Amino acid sequence: MPIRTAVPPRVLTVAGSDSGGGAGIQADLKTMLALGVHGMSVLTAVTAQNSLGVQGAWELPVEAVRAQYRSVVDDIGVQAVKTGMLASAALVETVAELLAGTDAPVVVDPVGVSKHGDALLAAEALDSVRTKLLPVATVATPNLDEVAQLTGVQVTGEEEMRRAAEEILAFGPRWALIKGGHLPGEAVDLLTDGSAEHWLRAPRYDNRHTHGTGCTLASAIASHLALGQDVPTAVEGAKAYVTGAIRAGFPLGGGIGPVDHGWRTRPAG
User: Distances in Å between the alpha carbon of 54 and those of 115, 118, 261?
Assistant: First the structure.
């Protein structure tokens, strides 16, 4: 077998670890592998986590996060960066500073709570997300709970998604992707830069095993951006990938199982 010499696009995730393997950097790296890019990671926090919830979380020191980031970016380089769980105001501000000095698109998943409702971001860090992190984002991908945390907007229908997007864009990201997966009916998301609107719709599958959807979607967007796609095309492709992963989600443990990051490699049936 010939030795591969071409280097795939490189994508960096800056996020927490999910010991159950369904979300966090584990989901990010699985997604990146599935989409044909080289995934790298900066670990911000360690969680004790399974299908039932988060039993504990420990953030890493600022200097450890900065050292990981510089180690990867200065030597290997990146074509896109994705952020997830950042835990504290100090880590949010540190990561925002690092991103501001990196010439690559940034996908910010403003993780606030887990699928089970466990807090993954200190309340006092919300202002740092608004004023430091979102301004350096190419795409921000809040779900409706995160929209409410950051803006106070309670979204109950599609028209309110427009208002939510306006509020998120006011913090400075180039694009906002408002994820409407918590609304009834089909799974609808709104992507906008304040002028163009892209409504993305997908069927809702009767599958409660959806742990890791937000991490997976943001990582898929970053992967497609690293492959050279523009933002609307990258988001559309990421939506298709995560929809298939949700459809193939499987039970694990006694609670909410993960999506299947490798669904495209499984035999049909």
Answer: 9, 6, 21
Catalytic residues: 179, 210, 212-215
β-bridge pairing 80-83 and 10-18 = parallel
Q: At residue 33, does pLDDT exceed 70?
A: yes
Q: What is the DSSP string of 61-102?
A: PHHHHHHHHHHHHHHT--SEEEE---BSHHHHHHHHHHHHT-
Please state the pTM of the whole predicted model. Answer: 0.95
For residue 189, what are the CA distances in angstroms to 20, 100, 146, 170, 201?
Answer: 27, 27, 14, 19, 7
Hey, what are 70's tokens? 């510089």
Mean model confidence pLDDT for the chain: 93
CB atoms inside a 10 Å sphere around CB 130 = 19
- pLDDT digit string, tens, across residues 83-127: 999 989 999 999 999 999 999 999 999 987 665 555 667 778 899
CA–CA distance from 220 to each of 30, 32, 168, 170, 227 (Å)? 10, 7, 21, 25, 11
In this structure, what is the dihedral angle of CA atoms 194, 199, 200, 201, given to the nearest 10 degrees? 150
Rounded to 5 degrees, what angle do the CA atoms 133, 194, 98 make?
20
